[in-house]
Amino acid sequence: MGFYERKIRYLDYLEYENKIKNAGFVKTEVSNENCKFQIMIKGLYPTDTLQGDVYLFGGGKAYKVETLSLRFGTSSYISTWDACNLCGSGISYEKWDGIEIRLSEHRVLRNIWREAGEEPMEALEEADEILVSMPELKEAAPALGEIVAENLAEGPETVPDKEEPVESVDRTTRFQSLYEDKWTQLTQHYRTIHPFGDERSYLSIKPEDFIILQGQYQKLVGNSFLLHGYYNYGHVLLERQEKDGHCSYYLGVPGIYHEREKQVAGLFGFEGFEGAASPYAEGSFGYYMLPVEI
To answer: The domain 4-134: what is its CATH number?
Structure first.
């Protein structure tokens, strides 16, 4: 009788090496020398329309084997590989130790079930159970309304705990003592950037800096749309506009101008958009804006 094995391994979604949730699975079905390989990704941010590189781990090394396309936070991939040489990586199914899908520098999907150097037979005792009958995630992407409703029902997400730098511990007191005008204070402590290459200037801040906002806006630290933009681009903007002697302030989340993403941004409160030139072209870079108070 030939060799047959079927397994499902679940993918952890991590941001900055902090596990956020499960976001799909990898299913393998090995029969003699063939390995039917399936990846299903579901439940990422609805604005995740991007590509991710697939790496297989074996013998303490990582090998890039494929590139997946994600659309609105979902992706499906099916192929048949040589069980003795998975996708041309040189890794056999027996020596395969894990998988990682890299979405960006700080965002990955991963499952490592065997440490480098551990013998396959030793690891079998701790391996996932062979699942012959398992309800699978639907391959079709859910409707936008379903995604957002599910996201909001779960409540606001939190930023992974980070060790606060010593200099930020007494930030509020320091701001109050340095200058009378709060905006002037902020310009002294945050980097000014010109993302569009013109005279418009903005302050580059992070979610951990939302203490500078009025209390009701500090809860934006758990806004899923904002965190998605921050993790992809590493910053958000704070803008000041003056008109007729009145000052208004806006928080900007970096992103790409698409009708679909614009709809999602609006559902999370970011109803405006600011880019290099108006009218904005599909696919152009800019910031989804939300009025705030400081």
So the answer is: 2.60.40.200
